[in-house]
Specification:
CATH architecture of one domain: Sandwich
Strand content: 35-45%
CATH topology of one domain: Immunoglobulin-like
Distance between the termini: 48 Å
CATH superfamily of one domain: Cupredoxins -  blue copper proteins
Number of strands: 30
Helix content: under 10%
Shape: globular
CATH class of one domain: Mainly Beta
Number of helices: 5
Largest sheet: 7 strands, mixed
Radius of gyration: 24 Å
Length: 482
């Protein structure tokens, strides 16, 4: 079994310019009651402000609504999803081209959509703490922004869940978003096929961990909403080079993934090409992390792409990869699993060993700790001794380079996410590195990590642990630009 980077397996391990068509129609009817001349009509129309003009059709629409999701025969998950499916629709869009996405909320609670990994304005980012509006039940909101930077991004709810383990990222509200680069990197050339894969865990319940703290545990796991053995296989052919875009959309679980009989060559993390692509027998993804991996299909048969830990595979975390039969060959036998060799996962493997080129203008120390509230209760989480909304951050100066110096003093691994910016990993456990650009980084238990970012996207900016429970119970910090 691959080793975690910790000593034990982890259990989490721009403006609002939409107006209703009815308001526009009322203004028009009021005017027509006063005059019938075409000249006056034209003069009045030119005086209507841009925000009050009828909107053009959106490029995409997402409808948030309840869904009974069959993950295996007679295994039904009652959840909330986008457009009646899990994951929601794959959105592919050219880099630098504006997009408009209408979101209609047909659930019974306020909702919001976060555009994860995008450098967009705070009002469009989809985090209530930054000033993005919640979408009331029965209401519609238009997100309008220019998708950047290029690469594998995603979208998901950013709603509070608290003790309701069917809301927030525990639900089926997530989907992949791929921003097509103007000039594709060389590593993406000569690809014969590609697949988008989303990992998720279902039916969360509260469970005591080794130190008696409460965490979310799960009954079932899926890849692309089906348990292992019940979904359509990924169909490949011998000698193809296949690109896998893999997203861990779990609310709290870190997952290890391997493709039996094959190596996965990691070429990008969180949508950004890595300085040192490397073939791995297994890969690790924390909640919200994405990996692009190329697989050389050179071992015909039917194989399992799945969690390296058997209990997770038995709970459904896997999908079959099946080679197309050659003429005259019989059908493959049952899909095969082979445990990968012990695997060390270290971000430094994919980075440059040179220190970052630019020293930071300011270092911001961040210490992470938990506060125990007794058996049967979730811990609260502290950044520098305070829980959100009492956490304090210095004002950011536009153009300055900042280093977040993170000290994890808790017994959990934490996938840390910075909104609206991409950061560069500067050190892991005191060892310098450079060139690895991400928007989520796991800081292991009792460890340290430094990440650098340039304050180049003014507006409120949220920093938090991407474990839903940790975030809900205080593990957030809001940066503001001066």
């Amino acid at each position: 079994m691959p080793s975690q980077s910790s000593s034990r397996p982890s259990n989490q391990s721009a403006s609002r310019w939409w107006v209703s068509r009815s308001a526009s129609h009322l203004s028009r009817r009021a005017f027509l009651a006063q005059t019938s001349t075409a000249l006056a009509t034209a003069a009045f129309a030119s005086a209507i402000p841009a925000w009050a003009q009828p909107q053009p059709a959106a490029d995409f629409q997402l409808t948030i609504a309840p869904l009974d999701l069959e993950i295996a025969p007679r295994k039904i998950i009652r959840t909330v999803a986008y457009n009646g499916a899990v994951p929601g629709p794959l959105i592919r869009w050219p880099e630098g081209k504006p997009i408009a996405i209408d979101v209609l909320n047909r659930s019974d609670v306020p909702e919001i959509v976060h555009w994860h990994g995008f450098t967009i304005p705070s009002a469009m980012d989809g985090a209530f703490e930054e000033g993005s509006p919640m979408i009331a039940p029965g209401s519609r909101f238009r997100y309008a922004f220019t998708p950047e930077p290029a690469g594998f991004r995603w979208y998901h709810t950013h709603a509070f869940a608290g003790h309701d383990l069917k809301r927030g990222t525990y639900s089926g509200q997530f989907g992949c978003f791929y921003i097509e680069p103007k000039a594709p990197p060389a590593a993406y050339s000569q690809i014969d096929a590609e697949f988008f894969l989303t990992l998720h865990d279902w039916n969360a319940y509260m469970s005591a961990s080794n130190d008696s703290t409460m965490e979310a545990a799960y009954e079932y796991s899926t890849i692309n909403s089906r348990m292992l053995g019940f979904g359509e296989p990924l169909r490949v052919r011998k000698n193809q080079r296949v690109l896998l875009h893999i997203l861990n959309a779990s609310a709290s679980m870190i997952h290890w993934l391997a493709l039996a009989g094959h190596q996965l060559t990691v070429i990008a993390m969180d949508g950004n090409p890595v300085p040192a692509p490397r073939a791995m027998p297994a890969i690790r993804l924390g909640p919200a992390e994405r990996i692009d991996a190329v697989v050389a299909m050179n071992n015909p048969g039917a194989w399992i792409l799945g969690e390296t830990r058997e209990p997770f595979r038995k709970s459904g975390m896997g999908i079959v990869v099946e080679y197309g039969n050659q003429p005259g060959e019989s059908r493959w036998p049952a899909p095969k699993w082979i445990d990968p060799p012990e695997t060390l996962w270290d971000y430094r493997l994919f980075a440059s060993a040179q220190p970052v080129a630019r020293a930071p203008d300011q270092i911001i120390p961040l210490r992470f700790e938990s506060k125990f509230h007794g058996q049967g209760a979730f811990d609260s989480w502290l950044i520098n001794g305070k829980s959100y909304p009492d956490t304090v951050a210095p004002a950011l100066q536009q153009g300055r380079r900042y280093r977040l110096r993170m000290f994890n003093r808790s017994s959990d691994d934490h996938p840390l996410h910075l909104h609206r910016h991409t950061f560069e990993a500067a050190s892991i456990a005191g060892v310098p590195l450079s060139g690895l650009r991400k928007d989520v980084l796991i800081v292991s238990t009792n460890s340290t990590a430094d990440v650098d970012f340039t304050a180049d996207n003014p507006g409120s900016t949220l920093f938090h642990c991407h474990n839903q429970t940790h975030m809900d119970f205080g593990f957030m910090l809001l940066f503001r630009y001066a």
